[in-house]
Design goal:
This protein has 315 residues and is α/β, with parallel strands linked by helices. It folds into 2 domains: 3-171 and 213-240, Rossmann fold (3-Layer(aba) Sandwich), CATH 3.40.50.720; 173-212 and 244-280 and 297-314, UDP-galactose 4-epimerase, domain 1, CATH 3.90.25. It has a 6-stranded parallel sheet with strand order 3-2-1-4-5-7, sandwiched between helices. The protein has 12 helices and 14 strands. The N and C termini lie far apart (39 Å). It binds nicotinamide-adenine-dinucleotide. Nicotinamide-adenine-dinucleotide (NAD) binds at residues 7-8, 10-14, 34-36, 52-54, 74-76, 78, 92, 115, 117, 169, 171-172, 179-180, 182, 184. GO terms for molecular function: L-threonine 3-dehydrogenase activity. One of its GO terms (biological process) is L-threonine catabolic process. Pfam families: Epimerase (PF01370).
Length: 315
């Protein structure tokens, strides 16, 4: 059976992707890796290697050792943290991608997944139902690294035939692993406050609408895209993925339907400017057409599953 390597497997997405792929294909075919060790659950669930995604030799050694044919490159510095360390973010986000693109070019791996983000869009992009192809002038270092990464992915596909596939994830919401420093983290923190009976102070304004998605939908999309026939994949930069759009106010109202005493106030910080530069909603009709993409979770089901999950995880 072909083997898969997940780099950045201890993160918010990597940990759930690892668990889902191990359930689907068996634990020994899915090799988890990260620059640090992860939760006890992840470490006990199958093979794990400590590796630095920016170190080509280390990455190549692990790939050759396990005879890996597919890599999911999930290591990156996210939007909020990247604004604090722009050069570090650039170095990590670009070098980790080049390493795997070059390993694929040298035919040491056959398939590559690399995540992009709605951060590729900027203040001059149409904000509502942002189309697949549109103006892209990102104003954050994170967005610049993702847009550049998309261009390189498409280039490696066209020039060298590298089978690289990508999704522009919206803000991802989950409770199993803490978020990694993004601008949409408020939509996770809010559930922890609601469950603990605390007042939540949102770092975004009440009317800031952003595209969001429950983690199960994001994992489903990632696996469906990677399993799709190559001739269906017409976009080799990165696919728009929509999900649901809501504001902090709308999310808090949906939470109040289940936790009536929940209270929220607003104290925007530097992440407000990042959020203001991003789309409010995304048109993902190209992903629907090319590989039958369809999301399952709406705002109500997302609130139900998050409240239940957070409650169980802290009890
Ligand atoms: N979470 C979201 O809402 C979201 C939205 C859009 C795009 N994305 C993208 O998805 C990917 C994964 O995001 P996430 O939310 O899981 O991030 P995360 O910060 O939770 O996880 C990233 C993981 O990468 C690891 N890492 C950092 N530097 C490394 C290195 N040099 N070598 C190996 N591992 C290293 C970290 O230890 C961490 O476990 C990133 O590319 C991110 O930009 C995430």
């Amino acid at each position: 059976m072909a083997k898969t390597l997940i780099v950045g497997a201890c993160g918010q997405i990597g940990s759930e992707l690892t668990a889902t792929l191990r359930q689907k294909h068996g634990k020994d075919t899915i090799i988890a890796s990260d620059i640090r060790e992860g939760s006890a659950e992840l470490m006990a669930s199958g093979p794990f290697e400590v590796l630095d995604a920016t170190n080509f030799a280390q990455l190549q050694d692990v790939i050759m050792h396990y005879d890996i044919d597919t890599v999911y490159m999930m290591a990156a510095m996210l939007s909020g943290t990247a604004e604090k360390f722009p050069m570090k973010a650039w170095e990590l986000n670009m070098n980790s991608l080049f390493n795997v693109l070059n390993l694929a070019k040298e035919q040491k791996i056959k398939h590559l997944f690399w995540p992009s983000s709605i951060a590729v869009f900027g203040p001059t992009t149409p904000k509502l139902d942002t189309p697949q192809q549109t103006i892209m002038e990102p104003s954050t270092v994170y967005g610049i690294s993702k847009q550049t990464g998309e261009r390189w992915c498409e280039y490696y596909y066209k020039r060298y035939g590298v089978d690289v596939r990508s999704i522009r994830y919206p803000g991802l919401i989950s409770y199993k692993t803490p978020p990694g420093g993004g601008t949409t983290d408020y939509a996770i923190e809010i559930f922890h406050s609601a469950v603990k009976g605390e007042v939540y102070t949102s770092f975004l304004n009440e009317d800031t609408a952003l595209p969001m998605m429950y983690m199960d939908d994001a994992i489903k999309a990632t696996i469906e895209l990677m399993e799709a026939d190559g001739d269906k994949i017409n976009v080799r930069s990165s696919y728009n993925l929509g999900g649901i759009s809501f504001t902090p106010h709308e999310l808090s109202e949906a939470i109040k339907l289940k936790v009536s005493e929940f209270k929220i106030n607003y104290k925007p910080d530097f992440r407000q400017a990042i959020a203001d530069s991003w789309p409010s909603s995304i048109d993902d009709s190209v992903a629907q057409k090319d590989w039958n993409w369809e999301h399952k979770y709406d705002l109500k089901t997302l609130v139900d599953v998050m409240l239940k999950g957070v409650e169980e995880s802290i009890s």
